[in-house]
Amino acid sequence: MIEMTAKGANLFFQRRTVLIGLSCVAQGAVGFGTRSVRTANDAPKSLGRLGPFREVFLTERVEQSNVDIALAYPYGERDNPYDEGLAHYLEHIVWQNVRDAGTDGGQHSNAVTSPEATVYWFSRAPDDLASTIQRLAASAAPLTVDEDFAKKERDIVEREFDLRRSEDPMDSAHVEMASRLFLDSPYARMTMGSKASIRRFTLQSARQLHERTHHLDKATLHIRGPVSDTDVRRAIQGIAQWPIPRAEAFPETRPLWPTAPEHQGSLFIDNLSQSRVVQQKSYVLPTDFDWAEIYAARNILVSLALSTKAGGLARPLRYDAFLAASFDLGIATLGTEGLLFWLEAMPDQGVPLSDLNAAFDQELRRLFESPSEPSFQEVHERELSRLDGVLDRLKVNDQRLSEALISGTPYVTLDDLHRATRKMSFKKFQSFTRHFLHPRSAVTRLISST
Question: With 80 as the cut, is the pLDDT of residue 277 above it?
Fold first, then answer.
């Protein structure tokens, strides 16, 4: 199926999760249900609970010819108690419940599984609104596939694994680091599983997972196109029968991953183009921050860290000391449970990886402990300007909603992000950066080619 990633993610995260881009314009998140901060005329409209769905969102785009309809369930690989990757396999075979002769892209398209969610979508003519909603809702009906088809689909999933992961020389490093960072918790799971786990998939376990995760009363429906809220209400209210749950749904809250001491080591990988330092650190959510404030502070911190301003990392590590040839970093959400900081750095010529890592440790500690207030003010103003510069606010808010239905974090509109950014004081920002001095778990790998 379609594998969705966002800019700013390194290869590790492309395999594990869906990240919201580091740009304050592109990033955002949406929770399932009615957790949105607020909606406005330039944001998708919440129609609340409608029909069997927990929440329905409508983005009116009169210039579109078709209606895009997405159905998101708040369960992904982290909710799968069976063999690793089964949630992605289930997405493949559920698609047989909803596809028809006109299905976009044939047999394998229009669906995505992330650690936090499973989403199916169609693009259809406005006159087909009701029938398309009903067809998507069939994803919650009992699975229609037989054993022979399920085995063939398992082979397709294995070929997809070969296409997407077997050719990546860093894949083994991603898996090993995740297991060190999150130990045996669901957060360590790879969405596509492994070759071994894929071969253990059974239709019976897929049916059991389906019955516990595909519940319409837990799902969010997102509609975009040239239709009104009256059209949507009429379409949903005109559907007489909906699939009924056959088992109790899994809880939507997940326990935190275990604490673990920082682990540092070296890896040697065949056919690696360039040696690198990779750091990953997990954190619980900071106290006294709402989600808009978390996103606002994160944007400022990442922008400052990547900059050449006083307190940033680029000048001391690239342009003054010539230690790093290049580097990238970011802060991702771990559902609604935590945050994850990642860093990947390539050494300049002749620089040992251990020296590069030590230099980054030193500069990151300085940044987290004592960020520059003048630099904060500069980046703060720049972030406000970027938010002010968004022309099609409805389109960007809609994009934030779509991205966050997959990542499973609370929806914050551009207006609320702007408000939180404008109100962000240096003292508040400093409390956010100091939170990153205390990871729940951490792993560092010095990775070289054999």
Answer: yes
Q: What pairs with residue 59 in β-bridges?
A: 224
The predicted-structure confidence for 89-106, as pLDDT tens digits, reads as follows: 999 999 888 876 555 444
Residue 38 confidence (pLDDT) above 70: no
Q: Kindly calculate the radius of gyration of the chain based on its CA atoms and give it in whole angstroms.
A: 22
Q: 215 near 243, Cβ under 8 Å?
A: no
Asked whether 7 and 399 are in contact (CB, 8 A), the reply is: no
Report the DSSP beta bridge partners of residue 332: 340
Q: Among 134, 355, 321, 332, which Cα is nearest to 237's?
A: 134
Report whether pLDDT(353) > 90.
Answer: yes
- Residues 59 and 226: their CA atoms lie apart, in Å, by 9
Nearest-angstrom CA–CA distance, 112 and 18: 10
- pLDDT at residue 99, rounded to an integer: 73
Q: Determine what percent of the chain is predicted with pLDDT higher than 90.
A: 81
Beta-carbon contacts of 358 under 8 Å, excluding residues fewer than 6 positions away, are none
List the one residue out of 329, 281, 77 whose CA is nearest residue 180.
281
**What is the structure's pLDDT at 95?**
86
Do 335 and 408 contact (CB within 8 A), yes or no? yes
Tokens representing 142 are 């009992």
The DSSP bridge partners found for residue 358 are none
Hey, CA dihedral for 311, 313, 314, 316, is it positive or negative?
positive
> Which three-class secondary structure state does DSSP give residue 164?
helix
Distance between CA 55 and CA 218 in Å, rounded?
Answer: 8
Sequence-ordered list of residues with C-beta below 8 angstroms from that of 443, at least 6 positions apart, any chain: 177, 180, 181, 262, 263, 264, 279, 280, 281
